[in-house]
Amino acid sequence: MHAPFVSATRLSIGSDADLAWVRQQVRQAAAALGFGLVQQTKLVTAVSELARNTLVHGGGGHMEMTPLAEGNRVGLRLSFVDRGPGIRDLELAMTDGYTTGGGLGKGLSGSKRLVAEFAIDSRPGEGTTVTIADWVSGVPSPRAGAS
Amino acid sequence: MTGPFATQPGPVPVLVLGDVLLVTLQGDLHDTAAERLQQDITQRIASSPAPVGGVVIDISGVEIVDSFLGRILAEIAASARLLATRTVLAGMRPSVAITLVELGLTMPGLDTALDVERALSLLGHPSPAAPTTHPEEGA
Ligand SMILES: Nc1ncnc2c1ncn2[C@@H]1O[C@H](COP(=O)(O)OP(=O)(O)OP(=O)(O)O)[C@@H](O)[C@H]1O
Ligand SMILES: [Mg+2]
Q1: Which of A6, A11, A16, A109 to mutate to test the interface with B (most CBs of B within 10 A)?
Q2: What's the CA gap between B98 and B102, in Å, rounded?
Q3: What is the set of domains in chain A, with CATH numbers?
Q4: Which among A82, A64, A66 has a CA at the least distance from the CA of A14?
Q5: Cβ within 8 Å, pair B66-A45
Q6: Residue B129 lies in a domain
Q7: Domain harbouring B49, CATH code
Q8: In chain A, which stretches have pLDDT less than 50?
Q9: Domain carrying residue B105
C-alpha cells in the first residue's frame, strides 16, 4: 500500500555511525519543518542521548520519526524502540545523575528537559520505548517542574 | 541520498602551534573518534619531547555536544591537568551552551574562551596572527 504522504521514517540504531546518521536525519527534518536553531540543537541533543541509550543499554533497536500537524502547529514525534533488558525502576532511571553504566546519568533526565513531551514505556525483559515530541516554537511549553 | 558513512569524519587533526596542541573538531564526531582523540591527546602530552604548554580544543564547528562528548571533553581536560597541562575549550556555539545548561552539563573546571585566539592568549601564547617576537633592539 502506498500512502500519498510520507508518514513515518524508520531508522535502525546498531552502531555509532547510526547515531550520527539519526542525528543528521532529525536535524534535517526539524530544519525543514521550521524549528529554530536553538530548538533544533536541543532536539538533536535529546535524540543523541536517547538513541545512544537504545544502542548501549537496549542492545540496539530503531527510531521512528513522524512529522506532526495539529491545528496550526507542526512538530515532530520520535520514538526510540529496543527489545533489550528494559528498565526495572523507571523513577530511579529518570533521576538526575543515576547511571548503571559509566555515564553521567544525564541522558534521560536531561533529554526530558530539552523537549516538550516525553514518555517512557519499559518492561523488564521485554524492552524499552521512549517517545518524545516537540513543536515548532509557537507557545512556550510550561517547563515540567521548573526549579 | 548518501549513506551513513558520508558523515564519517576522518581522524581529528591535532595541530602543533608552538608549544600548544590545537585540536579542531568539525561536524558530527562519532563516539569512537572522540574516544580515540582522548587517548591521542593524552599520549602526545606524555610523550612530547618538549613540554606541552597547553591544549586548545576548537569546537566552533560542532553543532551538538551531548553527555557523551561532554564527558570526553571534561576527561581530556582532567587527564591533561594531571599531566601538568591546561586545556581551553574554544568557540562553543551559543545554541550548544544553552542546550548544555538545560541538559545539566555545565562542565565546571573546564576553561573556556570565545575563540581560538583568546584561548591562546589565555595560555600565555601569542596569537598566530600576530608576530611572535618583538625584539627590542638597543633598549
Ligand atoms: N533503553 C534502555 N534500556 C535499558 N535501560 C536503560 C535504557 N535507557 C536508559 N536505561 C537505564 O537508565 C539509566 C539512566 O539512563 P541515562 O541515559 O540517564 O544515563 P546513562 O546512559 O547511564 O549515562 P549518560 O546518558 O549520562 O551517559 C541507565 O544507566 C540505564 O540503566
Ligand atoms: Mg544515556
Answers
A1: A16
A2: 6
A3: 12-135 (3.30.565.10)
A4: A82
A5: yes
A6: no
A7: 3.30.750.24
A8: 1-4, 145-147
A9: 14-123
Placement of cell 525483559 in the chain: A125
Phi-psi region of B91 (alpha: psi -120 to 50; beta: other; left: phi over 0): left
Question: In total, how many domains does chain B have?
Answer: 1
Each residue's pLDDT tens digit, B71-129: 999 999 999 999 999 999 999 999 999 999 999 998 887 999 999 999 999 998 766 55
Name the residue of A95, A96, A100 whose CB sits within 8 Å of the most ligand 1 atoms, as the mutation to test its pocket: A100
Cβ of A134 less than 6 Å from ligand 1: no
User: With a 6 A CB cut-off, is A105 part of the ligand 1 pocket?
Assistant: yes
State the residue for C-alpha cell 526530558: A112
Cβ-based contacts of B67 with chain A (< 8 Å): 49, 103-104, 106-107, 110
Q: Which value does ipTM take for this structure?
A: 0.87
d(CA B87, CA B111): 7
Q: Is A62 in the pocket of ligand 1 (CB under 6 A)?
A: no
